[in-house]
Design a protein that fits this description.
The chain is of the alpha+beta class and about 160 residues long. It contains 2 helices and 10 strands; from the N terminus they run αββββββββαββ.
Length: about 160
């Protein structure tokens, strides 16, 4: 019976040894989830941002339960990172995450058909997640200028 318990341990040890052999190991990304609070323009909705740091940049993926009904289709959302906290953000964003503004149905990237329900959007910030965590920063999600450019979600990154 002792021999049976020893075999799985030996296999795990051998695999761990092989994983480290053969050169440098890639740095594993740091991940942070930031809850996004809906503003009065998106009452009743919830959101979440997932920040993944890799190679000095941070990928920001938004997952939103939906957008206000007045938002035109296809949905365009503009994401910004401001210095400060949601309650007192800097007037101008520190980082514009506007390379991609066309939101898509959750699980169906690239689809632009009119839809209701969860949406997702991903952009890359040219800053490390470590820097974003060192001082207060906030993620601000706004509607398109055609929809009033209203702030609909906000979440504090640091402490």
């Amino acid at each position: 019976m002792g021999r049976i318990l020893w075999v799985p341990w030996a296999v795990c040890a051998a695999l761990a040894g092989c994983a480290g052999a053969g050169g440098e190991r890639a740095a594993s990304p740091e991940i942070l989830r930031v809850p996004l609070a809906a503003t009065s323009y998106a009452t009743g909705r919830i959101g979440n941002a997932t920040l993944v740091s890799l190679d000095g940049e941070t990928t920001v993926t938004l997952q939103l339960s939906g957008v206000p009904s007045y938002t035109t289709r296809p949905i365009h959302l503009y994401t910004y990172i401001h210095e400060g906290r949601c309650e007192a953000m800097s007037q101008r964003p520190a980082y514009d995450l506007t390379d991609h503004v066309l939101a898509s149905p959750l699980g169906r990237p690239g689809a632009i058909a009119a839809f209701r329900g969860p949406v997702t959007l991903t952009n890359v910030a040219p800053v490390s997640l470590q820097k974003l965590r060192e001082t207060p920063y906030a993620i601000n999600v706004r509607t398109a200028p055609a929809d009033g450019s209203w702030s609909i979600f906000c979440g504090n990154i640091a402490g």
